Amino acid sequence: MLNFSYFNPTRIFFGEHAIERAVALVPEEARVMILYGRSSAVKYGVVSELRSALKKRWMVVFGGVEPNPEYDQLMPGIDLAVREGVDFIIGIGGGSVIDAAKFIAAAVGYSQDPWTFVMDRGATIRGALPVGAVVTMPASGSEANNRAVISRRSVGIKRAFMNDHLFPLFAALDPTKTFSLPPRYIGNGVVDTYVHVLEQYLTYPVGGEVQDRLAEGLLLLLLNQGPKALEDPYNYTVRANLMWSATLGLNGLIGAGVPQDWAAHRAGYELTMLYGLDHAQTLAVLVPAMMDVRREVKREKLLQYGERVWGMKEGAPDERIEKAISLTRNFFEKMGLSTRMSGYGVHDFDVDLVVQKLEEHAVLPLGEKLDIDAEVMRSILRRCR
Ligand code: ZN
User: Fold this and answer.
1) Residue 7 pLDDT class (50, 70, 90 cuts)
2) How far is the CA of 251 from the centre of ligand 1 (A)?
3) Is the pLDDT of residue 39 over 90?
4) Measured in angstroms, how far is the CA atom of residue 136 from the centroid of ligand 1?
5) Is 154 exposed, middle or buried, given 0-12, 13-18 or 19+ CB atoms closer than 10 A?
6) How far apart are CA 202 and CA 320, in angstroms?
7) pLDDT of res. 247
8) How far is the centre of ligand 1, averaged over its atoms, from the C-alpha of 60 (Å)?
9) DSSP H/E element including 58
């Protein structure tokens, strides 16, 4: 096992009345900004539930945060927060809204253009307003981690930044709040969570058996409960397990002390910026292609994954690896995602353009062994068509 330090200060409130219980952590005299994305947060009553739980506290609302939260759209939110003296931010939604809340929270007291701390990956953040997260779309794990992802279309960049000041103070997880999610969001959430686990698991062995067993447990859970969430949308137990697995998939626990990959995420950001794919769609396309091209680098872990997650104990190793890759692809498709760019109507997929963007944004080489250079990336992307 590798050396590590593990820190996670976010207090989780899970289950019934999670919002009401969590809001007790907001000071009575706080000036609260409520952030949300889709109008469904209003339609299904989550905004009003939060407002009534906040009782007499002062509050202002900033709605309409888009998926892949956008720098230019959030700047007025920062101005509003500064003008009104906001000192507590609560985001209602999934990763996009929670990330937007973190961005505004860090930007309010920051002396320069906040794009600076996005570009330096959070290194110059010195503080942030306290953030609360009310999760209605489980996937990102942002409710209990120190990272956020912001996009800026005018310069074609989508980028993750991290800093320990960005851990939310609390996360309210009420599985009933996910009942109204359309199937596309459920499919995306399950695939995103599955890939968060793979990014921290499918690398090379370092004797981190605790981390491996936790990761394998989450993967098995997702394989089992993901399809059930689509078939039976009002099943509380299924939704509760998916919600908790999304948090545990990216709260730092399973990745502490083991190598991490994240190549699919980094390359996926470019596919979202260039072709407008949902985050999870980019992962569904890239992950099988990366497993295919990097099967030698990942050989031992691919065999372990095949055996412990897919129950493959017999047959030649190369055949088992081949089968593990195709079963992973089938699972993503079963969750309603295509695993090819053409499946999203992208018939002019430009491999060289994607590589050019990755080079411009200085993200290559990628992978747990930094083995993905421009040439390897080209062969991965050629398999995505
Ligand atoms: Zn993700």
Assistant:
1) very high
2) 12
3) no
4) 16
5) exposed
6) 15
7) 98
8) 29
9) strand 58-62
- How far, in Å, are 37, 93, 321 from residue 44 at the CA level? 13, 12, 44
- CA–centroid distance, residue 297 to ligand 1 (Å): 22
Residue type, 173: L
Q: Are 159 and 118 in contact (CB under 8 A)?
A: yes
- Taking the centre of ligand 1 as the mean of its atom positions, its distance from the CA of residue 230, in whole angstroms, is 20
**Amino acid identity of 257?**
G
> What predicted TM-score, i.e. pTM, was given to this entire model?
0.97
Q: How many Å lie between the centroid of ligand 1 and the Cα of residue 282?
A: 9
Report residues near ion ligand 1: CB below 5 Å. 192
Confidence category of residue 41, pLDDT binned at 50, 70, 90: confident
Mean pLDDT of 302-308: 98
- Quote the ligand 1 centre to 80 CA distance (angstroms): 29
Q: Quick one: what percent of the chain has pLDDT higher than 70?
A: 100
Cβ neighbours of residue 99 closer than 8 Å, sequence gap 6 or more = 69, 140, 142, 148, 149, 150
Question: 261 Cβ partners below 8 Å, 6+ apart?
Answer: 198, 199, 200, 202, 203, 367, 368
**β-strands 147-152, 157-162: how paired?**
antiparallel
CA of 280 to the centre of ligand 1 (A): 7
Q: How far is ligand 1, taken at its centre, from the CA of residue 209, in Å?
A: 24
Residue 33 CA to ligand 1 center (angstroms) comes to 26
The secondary element (H helix, E strand) that includes residue 131 is strand 131-135
Instruction: Report residue 240 CA to chain centroid gap.
Output: 18
Cα of 57 from ligand 1 centre, angstroms: 34
User: β-strands 131-135, 170-173: how paired?
Assistant: parallel
